[in-house]
User: Which sequence fits this backbone?
């Protein structure tokens, strides 16, 4: 008992000192330092085109939180224009199943966020939240897999009047689902018994839906 | 100079701490699903010879009680007998009006592990399922101060047929009149194949809602903070 008290006191002391040390190190890092990355995203699904991929140093979504209007527009209609700013870069167009795209960006952050709509869903998107790439030296790469999230802003009806891929306006300001971001439960499709669905078994997906390789270039 | 001294102090503290293998950890569990609740969670640090289950084997009676009915008391007793450090139902400890970890919600269990209890297990039934449960099964707890992330998959206890009927699933009141899906239990613990569901609340095969109560893996994330 005594020993453990001594140890925890020591450890506590060390941790307090360590946090002081941490701030010393922070001071040595110039907040204006920029990092350049090459970000390659590959669509791993069988039949889900992905909307122009958004890569950003700014946070895009968080599990359990209400989606921002910008995320809702991306997830329901593939429109990343609200979320795209100086912190990010957009892919040039749809990323077809099996296709890859490489984007380059220079930011002041060592965390990356990614979001891209699975076009044949109501409000599903593949993404990563706060991917920590601080361990990367110049020339080094890190590979991560992307799960499919549900923005929670539109019911997963799978109908041809609500899914953006069918030529309708995907975005609707109405929020008729759980209104928090969660992982996606998958689509059902008409082949799997949802007679009102406009989707087929080809558009079904599982996790992961995409793979991302980040290479630090500067 | 200051930084050298503090690093030395930290190193010696870590060495002493890891040699004793007693840790203070926070375990943050987040329900990642869009429509599945977790019944009271069991979070336990135990020794390397204790396991709540083995995938591929048949479930113990106490694991079955957890997976089919959300009752963790038998597993808690098993762990107490093994001198584990266990937290039951952290959701209720944070808010006495709650017992379920809702979709998108998080809870934190703070544990002090005794010497030798350096493996972590987490289980809870998933509602609505017949005998589905979320699990972390005896994962080595890191000993260095830091934050560690994990994701958990849905398991099936294999003890109850996945009928998806209101009569077989506690607190499921989605519908009646369904005829049921599976008729036999699988007999062994495995990764859950997912809910099927249908759109007919008063007929069809299932009482589960296909649009809102299916799930894919992973179903939970865990962040262990070693203090």
Assistant:
């Amino acid at each position: 008992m005594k020993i453990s008290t001594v140890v925890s006191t020591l450890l506590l002391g060390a941790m307090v000192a360590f946090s002081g040390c941490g701030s010393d190190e922070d001071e040595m890092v110039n907040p204006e330092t920029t990092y350049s990355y090459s970000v390659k995203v590959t669509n791993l699904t069988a039949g889900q085109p992905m909307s122009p991929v958004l890569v950003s140093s700014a946070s895009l979504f968080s599990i359990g939180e209400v989606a921002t209007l910008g995320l809702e527009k991306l997830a329901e209609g593939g429109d990343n224009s609200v979320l795209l700013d100086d912190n990010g870069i957009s892919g040039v167009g749809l990323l077809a199943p099996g296709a890859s795209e490489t984007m380059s960006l220079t930011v002041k952050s060592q965390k990356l966020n990614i979001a891209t709509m699975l076009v044949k869903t109501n409000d599903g998107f593949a993404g990563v939240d706060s991917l920590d790439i601080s361990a990367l030296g110049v020339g080094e790469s890190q590979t991560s897999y992307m799960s499919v999230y549900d923005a929670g802003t539109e019911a997963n009806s799978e109908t041809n009047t609500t899914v953006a891929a069918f030529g309708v306006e995907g975005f609707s300001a109405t929020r008729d689902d759980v209104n928090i971001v969660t992982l996606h439960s998958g689509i059902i499709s008409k082949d799997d018994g949802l007679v009102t669905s406009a989707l087929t078994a080809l558009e079904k997906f599982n996790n992961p839906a995409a793979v991302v390789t980040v290479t630090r270039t500067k | 100079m200051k930084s050298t001294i503090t690093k030395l102090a930290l190193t010696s503290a870590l060495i002493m701490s890891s040699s004793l293998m007693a840790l203070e950890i926070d375990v943050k569990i987040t329900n990642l699903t869009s429509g599945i609740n977790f019944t009271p969670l069991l979070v336990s640090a135990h020794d390397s010879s204790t396991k709540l289950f083995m995938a591929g084997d048949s479930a113990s009676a106490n694991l079955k009680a957890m997976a089919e009915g959300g009752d963790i008391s038998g597993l808690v007793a098993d762990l107490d007998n093994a001198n584990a450090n266990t937290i039951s139902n952290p959701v209720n400890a944070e808010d006495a009006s709650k017992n379920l970890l809702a979709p998108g919600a998080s809870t934190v269990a703070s544990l002090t592990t005794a010497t030798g209890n350096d493996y972590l297990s987490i289980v809870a039934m998933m509602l609505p399922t017949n005998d589905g449960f979320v699990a972390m099964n005896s994962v080595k707890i890191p000993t260095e101060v830091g934050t560690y992330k994990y994701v958990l998959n849905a398991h099936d206890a294999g003890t109850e047929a996945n009928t998806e009927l209101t009569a077989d699933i506690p607190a499921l009141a989605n519908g009646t009149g369904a005829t049921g899906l599976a008729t036999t239990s699988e007999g062994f613990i495995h990764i859950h194949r997912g809910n099927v569901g249908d759109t007919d609340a008063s007929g069809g095969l299932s009482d589960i809602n296909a649009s809102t109560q299916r799930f894919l893996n992973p179903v939970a994330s865990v962040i262990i903070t070693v203090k």
User: Anything to note?
Assistant: Residues 161 and 183 of chain B are 5 Å apart (CA to CA). Residues 22-226 of chain B form a domain with the Immunoglobulin-like fold (CATH 2.60.40.2130). The first strand of chain B starts at residue 24 and ends at 31.
